[in-house]
Amino acid sequence: MEKRAALTARMVNAADKHGLVHPSCLAKSLTLWWLLGRQGINTQLRIGIRKENGKFEAHAWVEREGAALNEAEGHHHHYAAFDAALASLREEEG
Question: Model-level pTM?
């Protein structure tokens, strides 16, 4: 499952890098989260915020077992992530 999750994350990043449009981190993370869920791979959609130069910024990423799948290591540590309420959204759908 780990290899499949990593491959799916690389495919979503490649689509962003080589595509005609470059979606937001939220759109990419939602896509990855959905694709992994369709493969039966349990992940959490994480959304965090920070205040930088007086402005609020938001960021989204996908985690599996505490590790971010779709971004450079450590980037998401600069954001205060919301609780697990978003992570449990998929469980409520079923």
Answer: 0.77
